[in-house]
Amino acid sequence: MSFTTRGPENDIESGPAKHGMNKNPDDSPSIDSTGKENTTDDAVFGEITEGGPNYRNVGWLGTVALMMKTQVGLGVLSIPAVFDTLGMIPGVICLLVIASINTWSCYSIGTFKINHPEVYDISDVGFKLFGPIGRECFAAAFVLLLTFCTASGMLSIAISLNALSTHAVCTAVFVAIGWVIAFGCGSIQTLSRISALAWVGLVSIIVAIFTVTIAVGVQERPYAAPQEGVWQSDYKLFATPDFASASAALSSLVFAYGATPAFFSIVSEMREPRHYTRALIISQVGMTTIYLVIGIVVYYYCGSYVASPALGSAGPIVKRVSYGLALPGLIASTTLLTHYPAKYIFVRALRNTRHLAANTKTHWVAWLSCTFGVSIVGYIIASAIPVFGGLISLIGALFATLTSFQPMGFMWFYDNWSKGTVKGSRVKWMVMVGWAVFVIVAGTFLMIAGTYGSIVGIIDSYKESGGSAAWSCADNSNSV
Fold it and tell me: Where is this region: Disordered (predicted)?
């Protein structure tokens, strides 16, 4: 096995000696006693000064908020429907397996960043592993993944506004409002400034989904169930889905953890990247617990009558309340999902120039152009595929697996392949080789199978009578 370890020096200059972590990462740029401005040299952003945006100012608590808000939001709303497809027990098992793989993948990002501080995003990883072709392939997958996620964020805002207003205007108008929010909030320059919004959004989405969870537990029956006669939930411990449906369901679970490649951007803006693992453990344990509780309880009480998104499962009143509570969280998610791909394009365009970390005219024109471009493409996607469940599973299958599973397996090989000759660690090394291969193979299978299942599901949705259509005015908050 061989990897391309170095490329043109003007693309990614490697090695801590050339571009190390901050000498004192916890300190922001400041003015010293002589009146001279102190600067911080960063491996990615270059010279960070007091007068420009501080791209290395996210603490570990802010990192927890960014991680959880990037993950918890859109994906959790589809988990009860996934359990309906797979059955309760297989659904829980599949969620835990994907959570375990994802946690290792996220951990690999932190260790790879420590070993290679010049890496900013997954395209830099692609360049190290496979040269220029790898860089462009990973870059395309990353930008497309998060741009599609931006679209799903706009779609969720439109669903929320439809629910709150009882469909006061055409859904296409609400999607356009989602675009305005994505462009405006996504243009905030640094993640440290967005972290406050992430905390608000995280609390709001958790309160909203637990409100629905409690509501479906105390109600006699879910809103979509038959309202006459004796009601008993038709939840299934085991289900027998066809291959396409099962693959699409697994893709939705992958999407629930699909923000993995964005963690490169988060660790790159941390004051102390060595605190990354601490934040990761808190984030992963917290959101997996939330996913399990929401998925099990809502599906147990609603059965096949669960809505997707799940906030609509408890009837019109609770739906309006829950969407009102969730709206700040959906806005925060859409903000982050717009910010990440725009920041990638921006950094790549201005890297190794003074405009990257200085508030020049070129800086602002480039930055706003990036956020505008990402948000407008997301708007087009959201308007063309206004089917929440189908869009979620398609994103998870086609892009989330490609950027969350396979690259991390190859990253482990890149840093550890030569350690197989070291005495005393051979057994551990062989176990990790097997694990890395498993992650690569599993990711490839999920990508191919899930894409097929998702496309089949979207086609079936379009064939249904009264189903959503491109640029539709139909109310999209009543999906079940």
Answer: 1-39
Give tens-digit pLDDT for 324-371: 998 999 999 999 999 999 999 999 999 989 899 888 999 999 999 999
Q: pLDDT tens digits for 416-431? A: 988 877 766 788 899 9
Question: Would you state the pLDDT for residue 75?
Answer: 63
The 3-class secondary structure across the chain, one letter per residue, is CCCCCCCCCCCCCCCCCCCCCCCCCCCCCCECCCCCECCEEECCCEEECCCCCCCCCECHHHHHHHHHHHHCCCHHHHHHHHHHHHCHHHHHHHHHHHHHHHHHHHHHHHHHHHHCCCCCCHHHHHHHHHHHHHHHHHHHHHHHHHHHHHHHHHHHHHHHHHHHHCCCCCHHHHHHHHHHHHHHHHCCCCHHHHHHHHHHHHHHHHHHHHHHHHHHHHCCCCCCCCCCCCCCCCCCCCCCCCHHHHHHHHHHHHHHCCCHHHHHHHHHCECCHHHHHHHHHHHHHHHHHHHHHHHHHHHHHHHHHCCCCHHHCCCHHHHHHHHHHHHHHHHHHHHHHHHHHHHHHHHHHHCCCCCCCCCCHHHHHHHHHHHHHHHHHHHHHHHHCCCHHHHHHHHHHHHHHHHHCHHHHHHHHHHHHHHHHCCCCHHHHHHHHHHHHHHHHHHHHHHHHHHHHHHHHHHHHHHCCCCCCCCCCCCCCCCC
**What are φ and ψ of residue 36, in 5° steps?**
-85, 140
Fold that domain 54-226+234-463 belongs to in CATH: Amino acid/polyamine transporter I (1.20.1740)
Give me the amino acid identity at 128. Answer: K
